[in-house]
Records
---
Amino acid sequence: MNPEPTSVRTDWTREEIAALFDLPFTELLFQAASVHRANHPPAEVQLCTLLSIKTGGCPEDCGYCSQSVKADSGVEASKLMDVRSVLQSAAQAKDNGSQRFCMGAAWRNPKDRDMPAIVEIVKGVSAMGLETCMTLGMLTPKQADMLAEAGLDYYNHNIDSSPEYYERVITTRTMGERLDTLGHVRAAGINVCSGGIVGMGETRSDRVGFVHTLATLPQHPESVPVNALVPVKGTVLGDMLADTPLAKIDDIEFVRTVAAARITMPLSMVRLSAGRESMSEATQALCFLAGANSIFTGDKLLTAPNAGDDSDAALFAKLGLTALKGEEPLRACHVAEAAE
Ligand code: SAM
Ligand code: DTB
Ligand code: SF4
C-alpha cells in the first residue's frame, strides 16, 4: 500500500465527474485501480452480512422496492424481530467470517417506541465483536444520538440516484429529507453509509449526478454501496424492466460508475452491493479492479437472493481475493485527518 494516501476533495464538479465517465475504459480502470491501491489493500474485500429485522409493509413508494405497500411483490409484512433471534443470526454471520452486520427495517422512520429494542440489538451485536450497521429510514437528531450512544458504528441511508431522477422514483419523501438524516447521523458521530442504485432507467447524466452528490457532501460517506437494480416483479421499476429488457444496465456502464465512485471518494469503502447474483464473474472482477472493496455475503439480501457463500468462495479463490480482517471501524475523524 502507498503510505501517502490520495488527497480527499469534496469540491468535485459535475463536469469533472462526467469527464471521468467519458474516459476510455482502460484509462478509467487504470486511474481507479491506482487510487484504490494507494489507499486500500487491493486484494482484500470487506465481508458484510445483511438481515431484514422488519420486513415489508413500508408506507414509502420507492419504485424499486419489494417492501413498499405500493408494490404487489408477494413480500409479507412482519413485525420487528425479537432481540434474541437477531443475535442468533449475528452469531452465525460472525462464524461465517463476516466483519459487519447490517440490519434493515422497512420503515419510513423508526417510532420512538421501537428505539429501546433497537438499542438492545445494537449493544448485543457490538458485544459479539461485529461492526454494526442499521438502516431504519429517516432519523431525528435525538434518535441518531440514541444510536450513537448504543455504540452503532454505521448508519445506511441511500440517496439512491441523482437529485433529478430521485423524484421520478420516490414521491413520499425528498432528497433533501434524505440529506437531513445523513446530517443527523454525521452530527451524532456515527459513520455514514450512503450510496444508491444503478440501472433504474436513469441516464449517464443521472449517474454522474448521483456520484457528484455523494462526492460533494461535506464529508464523504465512509461506505458507499453501489447497487445494481434487482428487478422485482410487482414493483414499478421491476415491471418496467421486464417489459423493456434492453433497459437493463450495461455491465461496462456499471463498472464505470464504481470506478467514478472510487476515484472521487478515495478513502471510502465502495460496496458492490445488490445485483451480484445476476452478474457474471468477469463483471464482478472488473468491479474489484475498479476499486470495489466490500460485498454482502450470504444467500439473501433483505428480500432478494444474493450470490451465496459457495459461489463467492469460488470467485475469491479464482481471483486471489481474501476477506479484509481486523479493521477498526473507520471513524469519521480518520477521514478528516487524512484529508489534511
Ligand atoms: N427503509 C430504509 C431506507 O429506505 O432507507 C432501509 C431499507 S432499504 C431496502 C435500503 C436500500 O436498499 C434502499 O435505499 C435501496 O438503495 C436498496 N434497494 C432496495 N430495493 C432494491 C432493489 N430491488 N435493487 C437494488 N437495491 C435496492
Ligand atoms: C444497500 O445499499 N443495499 C442493501 C442495504 N443497503 C440495506 C439492500 C439491498 C436490497 C436489495 C433488495 C432486497 O433484498 O429486497
Ligand atoms: Fe421502504 Fe426503504 Fe423499501 Fe423505500 S426502500 S419502500 S423506505 S423499505
---
Amino acid sequence: MRKVNVGLLGFGTVGAGVVKILIEDRELVSSRAGVDIFLKAVADIDIESDRGISLDKGILIPDAYNIIDDPEIDIIVELIGGEGVAKEFILKAIANGKQVITANKALLAAHGNDIFRKAAEKGVDIAFEASVGGCMPIIKTLREALVGNRILSMTGILNGTCNYILTKLTNEGSAFEDALKDAQEKGFAEADPTLDIEGIDTAHKLAVLNAIAYGTDINFDDIYIEGITKITPMDIAFAAEFGYRIKLLAISKETNGKIEARVHPTMIPEGNLLAGVNGSLNAITVSGDAVEDILLYGRGAGRMPTASAVISDVVDLARILSGTKGRISTISNQQSEGQKVSILPMDNILTNYYIRFSAQDKPGVLSKISGILGDHKISIKSVHQKGRKEKGPVPIVMLTHQAKEADVKKALAEIDSLDIIISASMLIRIENGAAE
Ligand code: HSE
C-alpha cells in the first residue's frame, strides 16, 4: 500500500479533531482509502496546550515552513483560518507542488480566484469541503452527485451561531447577548463573532457555493448581506403570529443567466423544512433541473463534524496522489472475515411502542392487559382511553418504555387471545431520538 504523508497547519478545535481521526483511525481510514495515510507533522504557534490528544515527540512543531518545505509531505491541511498567514502558507504550498486542503471560507471568499488559478497553473488540487456547512457534504454533492444537473437555486442556513441565537430568541425568549455568549462558549462562533452575526460568514460560504453551482468566479463583493443584529423579540413574536419563523438564510438563484445572491434574515412558513432546523445545526436545499429539490442537514461547526469533512478531502487527494484506480471499493469498507458485522435479529431490538388495544369496556380489562405486559417485562409509560362504550370495542392506547421486540410480540399474542379483546391490537414503534 502506498504511503501518503500529511502535514497539518493549525492545531486548534478542528485541527485537533483531524489529528484524532488520523491517529486513532489511521488503519480504518487507510484501508478504506487503499492508501496508507500518515500524519507526519503538525505546526502551531502553541505547542504546549493540552488538546486532549497526544502526539509522538517531534510531530508538533512551531514553524509551519518546516512542513510546507518538507519534500516528503504530499498534502498540506490548512486549519489556521483568517486571511493573514493562512494565505501565505497556502500559496507557498502550491508553489511547492503540494496538494492543499483548507476549511478557510473567509480566505476563499476574498482570494479564492487567485488561489484556484495558481493551483491550476501548478497542476495541484485545492480541496475545501470543510469550508461550508461543517460535516454536510455540500461541495461533494454539488460537484459529484449533482454533476448531471443545472443548479437552479440554493437556500441554506449556513451559520450555526446565528441559527443558535435565533432559536434561543424564539424558543426561550433569551436576550441576544446571552445567546451569543453561549454560542461563543460552545465553540462554534468565529474568533470575531461580528463575522457571524452580521451575515458575513454566511456570505463567505455562499460565495464559495455559487462558484461551484453556477460556474462563476467567487463574487463575494456582489452578495447582498444583512445580519441578525436588528432582529427584536417583537419581530419574532409577530412572525410567529403570521405562522412564520425567522432564519438567517443564504439564498441564490439562477435566472436567465444572472445569479441572484443574498444573505438576510428571512421569514419562512413554520411548516417549511428549514424552519425546523434549530440550534447550531445547518441545512441547505439545492434545486437542480433533474433532481428538483434535495436537502442536506447536519452540524455546520464543531471539532469532529468539521474534521470529518477534512478527512474526506484527505482521502480524495491521497487516492489521486497514489494513483489508486477506481472508486473506494465496497469491499474495502467491509471488515475482514471473522470480524463480519451481522444484522441484529428483529426480536432482539429495543425500542418504545405505541399499542392500541380494541377491548371491551368493563372493569378488570386494564389490569388484565397491564398484568400480561408486566409478566413480559414491559413497562408502561402512559395509558389513554377516550370515552366509554356499553357495547362494542373501546380503543385503549398504551405507550411503553423501552422494551424488547420479542417480549412485546409474546405479550401481544397472549393479550389478543383474551376474550375481552375484540380485534387484533395495533403496534407502532416509536423512535424518540431520530433527530434533534
Ligand atoms: N462560525 C461558524 C458558524 C463556524 O457559526 O457556523 C463554521 O463555519
